[in-house]
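A favour, since you know our structure tokens better than I do. Could you add the entry underneath, on a fresh line?
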Amino acid sequence: MGDTLEGRPVVILTHVGAKSGLVRKSPLMRIEHKGSYAVIASNGGAARDPLWAGNIAANPAVRIQDGATVHDLRARRVFGEEQEQWWLRAYETFAPFAGYREGAGREVPLYVLEPA
């Protein structure tokens, strides 16, 4: 696809609505490491999670389109040291994530998407 957001590559997250059961698609910053991806529910620093976060918590089977490549993956929320490692990767990818995390006034969920 070659899509970008603020000059950075994005992936398309395909997920199933927790209430509706409908297929949804969300463009998110591309944060990839050794075949796994992270998606960060910062919602641009808003006080609430984006809707997609509730969807993948309820239905963790997701699909990522990274350019022309499509991956079927499973989402899991991460915590502790693993979470911090992914946050560092996120900051390297898109520095504003640090401000979003700080300004949100909540624990910002971070999910790792990996092969099932």
About this structure: The mean pLDDT is 94. The domain at 4-47+60-114 is CATH 2.30.110.10 (Pnp Oxidase; Chain A). DSSP finds three helices and eight strands in the chain.
